[in-house]
Amino acid sequence: MTESHHDVLIIGGGAAGLALALEIADRRAVTLLQPSPDARGASRWAQGGIAAVLSPCDDVEAHVADTLVAGDGLCDEAAVRFTVDQGPAAIEWLLSLGVPFTPDPDPKAGYPYHLTREGGHGARRIIHADDATGRAVIETLERHVGAHANITVRHDLSAIELMADTAGHCRGARCLDATGQLHALLARDTVLATGGASGLYRHTTSPHPASGEGMMMAAELGAELMNLEFQQFHPTCLYDPEGTPFLISEAVRGEGGYLLGADGERFMPTIDPRAELAPRDIVARAIDTEMQRSGLAHVWLDIRHLGEEAIRHHFPTIHAHCAARGLDLAREPIPVVPAAHYSCGGVGTDLAGATTVPHLYAIGEVACTGLHGANRMASNSLLECLAFARGCARRLAEGSTASTAPLVERSWGTQRPSREQIGELRDAMRGVMSTRVAIVRSDAGLDEAAHALAEIHERLAPHLAEAAPDAEAASLWHALRLARLTVSSARARRESRGLHHNPDCPLHADTPPSPSRIHLSALHVPAETPIGNG
Q1: Of 319, 340, 361, which residue constitutes the final position of a domain?
Q2: In a domain, 283, yes or no
Q3: What is the 3-state secondary structure (H, E, C) of 246-301?
Q4: Are residues 426 and 513 in the same domain?
Q5: Torsional sign, CA 63, 67, 70, 73
Q6: Residue 527: what pLDDT?
Q7: Is 402 within a domain?
Q8: 423 CB neighbour count, 10 Å cutoff
C-alpha cells in the first residue's frame, strides 16, 4: 500500500466538490478525487436549473416560504434561510466563471436571463442553461478546476473507506486504483461530496447513480445519519425499459405540460389545486396511484399544445433525446414514470458542512443540512451545492490543528469476490427497495424488506470476511447497510410526511415533527467494513 499526504481531500467530482475546490484552492492545497467521467455525480444530469431570487418580482421571504411548504414541516429554517440568502451571489459567481445561462430575449424582462417556474415555486426563479443546466455548470467548473495550480485532480483512484485515528478523527481515505492497488491518502481535512443513494433502487434518473457509499463511509467513523426515509422520486422519467435512464425536467410541467392518464385526460387538477405544479411528492404519488388504478406501466406527459417551435426553443436536449428514441414531442405525448432521484437524508452537518466527526465534512446530496426537510423542492439542490460549498470553504480557510493520534490499522485478505455474486446480490437489494420501500410503503412491506435485506446481508458477509480490498464489493457493502438503515428509519416514522407515505399511518403525527437520526450501531454489526479481516 502506498501512502501520501494531503491538505484538503475532496471525494467526489460533481457540482459540490468542484465548487468547493475552486472556493478554497487560493488558500489551501486541494486533492480532488473524480475517478471517471461517470463520477461527476447527479449534478451533470440536472436539466431544470438553479433556484434563486433574481427577479425584481420575487423576494427571499417567498423562496423561503415555498421551501418550507415543500419540506412539509421538517425543514430547518436556519438552513433554508442560509441557502436562499446566498442564491443571488452564487449565481453571480457562476456567471463570472462563464456558465452559459439562457438569456431572456424580452427587453421588458426584469432580469437579463430567462427564469422558468417549477413545481412548488410561487414565482419564476429558476435560472437555466437551456434544458442542460447541470452539464453547463459541471463543464464550466471542470475547466476552471483543471486550470488551477493548487488543485490536483485524481481520476485514477476510488475511495472505499475513510481512515480514522484512535482519537476518533478522520484522517483521509483508503482508495483503490484500476489494478486493485491500495493507496492511503492521509489528509488534514476530508470532504465527502459523493452524492446520494438513488442507486439503492432499480429505476433511477441517472445512468450512474451513487448508492450512499459516502454516507456509510461517514457512518463507519461514527457520523450521524438523518432522514434516510425521505427518498425523492422524480415524477417524470422517460419510460423506456430498453434504454438508459433519462430525466424529463420539472420545467416541462413548469412551462405548461399536462399529465394524462389511461383515458387521455388530465388527473392532477382533481388531486391538488396546483395541478401539475404541485410539489414532487404529491405528483409522484398521484402518478403511482394512476398507474396502479389503470394497470399501465406509465402515464403520459403532453406538451403538444405548446407547439414545435416553443418545444425546440425551451427543451432542445429533451427534444433531441426523445427524437433519437423515436418520439416526436410535437405530435405525441411522452411516456413517463416516477424514478428514484434525490436523497433528502444523509450525513448530518452544520451550516459549514461539518459532521460530528472531527476533520470530516459533507456537502451536496450526501449531506443532510436541513434544507430539504421531508421533500426537496425542485432546483434547490444545485443551489444547496453552491451555498454549502462556499460555507464549507469559509470554515476550511480558518485552518485546523492536525490530529497526531495513531491511525486505526486495517488488514486485508487475498480472495477476490465473484462479480456474478456481487451483481446478483445488488439486483436483489434493488428489487426489495423498489417493491417495498419506494413511493408508498406499508408496515407489512417494510417488515418484509427488513427480513429480505437481512438475509442478503447474511449471504454477503461471509464472502467478504477474507476478501481483498475491492471497489465493487465495498460499494455493495455500503449500499446494503444503508438500505437496511433506510428501512429502519421508515419503520420508526409513524406518520406520513412528505416523501414518506405509509397508508397504515396516513396522517401527520400529533407531536411536532423532528428529524430522524440513526447510527450504524442500529444494525448491531461491527462498524468496520468486513472486506478484509481488520
Answers
A1: 340
A2: yes
A3: CECCHHHHHCCCEEECCCCCECHHHCCCCHHHCCHHHHHHHHHHHHHHHCCCCEEE
A4: yes
A5: negative
A6: 46
A7: no
A8: 12
Residue 372 domain flag: no
Q: What's residue 244's pLDDT?
A: 84
The set of residues, in sequence order, having a beta carbon less than 8 Å from that of 178 and lying 6+ positions away, is: 156
Indicate which residues carry an active-site annotation: 280
Residue 526: pLDDT over 60: no
Single residue among 289, 321, 340 that ends a domain in this structure = 340
Residue 286: give the domain boundaries. Answer: 231-340
The domain total for the chain is 2
* Grid cell of 429 as nine digits: 437489494
How much of the chain, in percent, has pLDDT values that exceed 70?
96
CB neighbours (10 Å) of residue 263?
Answer: 9
C-alpha count within 13 angstroms, C-beta hemisphere, residue 419: 0
**How far is the C-alpha of 499 from the C-alpha of 344, rounded, in Å?**
9
Is residue 312 one of the residues assigned to a domain?
yes
Q: What is the CA radius of gyration of the chain?
A: 22
Backbone conformation region of residue 298, classed left if phi is above 0, alpha if psi is from -120 to 50, else beta: beta
Indicate the angle between helix axes 60-70 and 77-85, nearest 10 degrees: 140
Find the CATH number of the domain harbouring 439. Answer: 1.20.58.100
- As given in the structure block, the three cell numbers for residue 24 are 478554497
Grid coordinates in use for 478? 455500503
Predicted TM-score (pTM) of this structure: 0.92
